[in-house]
Specification:
Blueprint (H helix, E strand, L loop, with lengths): L2 E4 L5 E5 L4 E2 L6 H10 L4 H5 L5 E6 L5 H12 L4 E7 L5 H6 L2 H5 L2 H11 L8 E7 L2 E7 L12 E6 L13 H10 E9 L4 H10 L2 E6 L6 E6 L2
Parallel strand pairs: 4-5, 4-8, 5-7, 8-9
Antiparallel strand pairs: 1-2, 2-3, 6-7, 9-11, 10-11
Helix pairs in contact: 1-3, 7-8
The chain binds S-adenosylmethionine.
């Protein structure tokens, strides 16, 4: 059972005894998520386009990246189509203990999400749809490799599995190649990992990989561009 922990910016994260890791940086879950992912794929620029924004996340976890990304869409008139994969969707009870929605002022959509979550059973490699106002979430509940990502589907990708040493599958080159194909040309993939093996695998897939300064407690992170 994952354990609730408070991080440096006052937002919650979870510790997974199975992976021996927390879901976010202990220095600040919201701070990290905003810096690494939302800013990493330049969501603000995507929002200025006159089209539905399509994002893919590998590792939905607490849903923090989803809610942070959804917030500007809920207050504006742009539409967000968010697709996520998650092998172990957290129980509703665990979601409801997290303080993210309260800190982000999203209690109402989060309440709707919890009611939707209550209708989903164990992982079955199927996609479930949650819709609220201008946002839609397609959540593939199962093993990431079993999902179909299509070709040039997404404007941007968040790669947020646990680290490669304890969670190697989503970092394998053949899998990253599928993510590359699913990204639109000009799209960005953001990840918190800056390790050499990840950089090399992304480069081998065709990405132009750039190091960026990390959020508190992390020197470097990666942003990968599809030419
Ligand atoms: C670091 S946590 C994700 C944090 C999340 N993005 C958030 O904002 O809370 C990694 C997540 O990836 C999921 N995961 C790991 N390997 C997976 C796989 N092969 N297929 C699907 N999900 C996977 C884990 O269950 C976990 O929820």
């Amino acid at each position: 059972m994952d354990e609730l922990r408070l991080t440096g910016d006052g937002s919650h994260t979870l510790y997974s005894p199975e992976y021996g890791q927390t879901y976010h940086s202990r220095f600040g879950a919201i701070e990290e998520s905003r810096h690494v992912f939302v800013q990493g794929v330049r969501l603000e620029e995507l929002l200025k386009r006159n089209e539905t924004v399509t994002l893919l996340e590998i590792g939905f976890g607490t849903g923090l990246n989803f809610w942070l990304s959804a917030r500007p869409f809920l207050t504006g008139n742009r539409r967000l189509n968010y697709r996520a994969v998650e092998a172990r969707l957290l129980p509703g009870e665990t979601f409801s203990r997290l303080n993210h929605a309260r800190l982000l002022g999203l209690e109402e959509p989060f309440g709707a999400f919890l009611r939707w979550r209550a209708g989903i059973g164990p992982a079955d490699n199927r996609e479930y749809h949650f819709r609220y106002d201008t946002i839609s979430l397609g959540l593939f509940h199962g093993e990431a490799r079993r999902a179909d990502y299509g070709e040039e589907t997404f404007h941007a990708i968040y790669l947020d599995a646990f680290s490669p040493d304890c969670n190697p599958e989503p970092w394998a080159e053949d899998y990253l190649k599928r993510l590359y194909r699913s990204l639109k040309p000009g799209g960005l993939l953001a990840t918190y990992s800056s390790r050499r093996s990840v950089r090399e695998a992304l480069t081998a897939c065709g990405f132009c990989v750039e190091k960026r300064p990390g959020s508190r407690g992390k020197r470097e992170i990666l942003s990968a561009y599809k030419p």
